[in-house]
Amino acid sequence: MTRRDLLIHDEQLCLQRGVRLTPQRRRVLKIIMQSPQPLGAYEILQKMDPPAAPPTVYRALDFLLQQGLIHRLATLQAYLVCEHPDASHQGQFLICSECGHVEEMEDSNIQQSLDLAASQAGFSCSNEVVEIMGRCGQCAGAVH
Ligand SMILES: [Zn+2]
Ligand SMILES: [Zn+2]
Questions:
Q1: What does the pLDDT look like over 37-93, one tens digit per residue?
Q2: 92-143: which CATH number, 3.30.1490.190, 3.40.50.300, 3.40.50.720, 3.30.450.30?
Q3: Is the pTM of this model over 0.90?
Q4: How far apart are the CA of 140 and the centre of ligand 2, in A?
């Protein structure tokens, strides 16, 4: 899906769910979508045009997270757009520590294994985002 299609898709998703993708929320989503790398809250704030107050941006980020339109990476303290926002998922990410590229994996088996292992330990998860650091194919290939 192209970025443009994804934005239209996300707009329709909000419409179906009866939640409002306000102009501010849409602006924040678009900024994150247009960035090739995950963006920190401060970077998003700086890109807001017209400028917005920090609480406005944070509220917009909360909304987008709740709707599953974006993900937050704890290791990078940054946000990135979700490529498949229809399915409810926490997300698994391959993060390249050299070029900063982040790839979202779509593997429901990982999620299921995590859920099972956690419940066997009597643990109920509130955050199951998996962040794997390493080198992407391109960076690993460049060494040879
Ligand atoms: Zn996702
Ligand atoms: Zn890389």
A1: 999 999 999 999 999 999 999 999 999 999 999 999 999 999 999 988 888 888 899
A2: 3.30.1490.190
A3: no
A4: 7
Q: How far is the CA of 71 from the centre of ligand 1 (A)?
A: 6
Among 49, 43, 45, 75, CA closest to 60: 45
CA 135 to ligand 2 center in whole angstroms: 5
CATH number of 3-81: 1.10.10.10
* Sole residue written with tokens 């088996």: 109
The long-range contacts involving 30-33, CB below 8 angstroms and separated by at least 24 positions, are 32/64, 32/70, 32/79, 32/80, 32/81, 33/3, 33/6, 33/7, 33/81
Q: What DSSP string describes 13-26?
A: HHHHHT----HHHH
